[in-house]
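Hello again, I could really use a second opinion on something today. I've been staring at a protein lately and its backbone has me curious. Please have a think about how the structure follows from the sequence. I owe you a coffee for this, so here goes:
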Amino acid sequence: MRMGETDRTSFESGWMHAWQTGFVAVPGALMLYYKSLGLTEEDVMILLHLMYMRQHEHKEFPSWEELRSRMSIPQQQIITSLHRLIKRGYLSIDERVDEKSGIRYEAYNWTPLMNRLAAAAQLYAAGPSAAASQPAAGASTASAGSTGTSKRTSAADSSAAERSTAAGPLRPPVSTAGSSALPEQETTNLYSIFEQEFARPLSPMEYETITGWIERDQYPEPLIVLALKEAVFAGKVNFRYIDRILLEWQRNSIRTVEQAKAYAQRFRGR
């Protein structure tokens, strides 16, 4: 069936528009190995949007609102996916300084993802048997024996994680087994609570601050929420004031909500 003149004109017009909006350079390894790396289709679509914005709009760190405006999934789902990508070491965030203006800004660091893709490509290049012998990224296999059960992570995952750590200034790493860090869902809920109180999405620096409270300072989640409520009560809803509250509690060996409430009552009663 031959294309009519109207159809041809419409096709050419559509193709010209597509050409003018540009194309995205996507590593083929991402499309080949994302499943073995433990990435979902939702994760990949977010990565593709980030790549397009970086390559064509020169946006090194687009906002969640910008991503939401182009995707069909809710903003909270986008935030959760981005948190997961950072938490699992696929992306990191660098703080950079513009050489001309001296202004600080943040940008996604793609090195961890590229390292993992390179490791996956090398693994599969070694042959199907080598690839099949490795568990998927993030997965673990149990080996039964007289000494019990042991877990091991894939070699590709381990080597990529080591290289990503040496790639530059990254976000504080999220703790794994044996850590007192919050589970992923609880951490995401904590960010959501802050966004509800601030009535806006959190900035990258604010996200980094909360991550630091959890990972570096080891503040319990209920204590962080209570500090936020104290700041709201005082009419000083800003991260510096919340950080001062948490630091004051830490200096006074306060680790529970009950202790913090008792301390606040004594402070107000002075």
Summary: The first helix runs from residue 5 to 21.
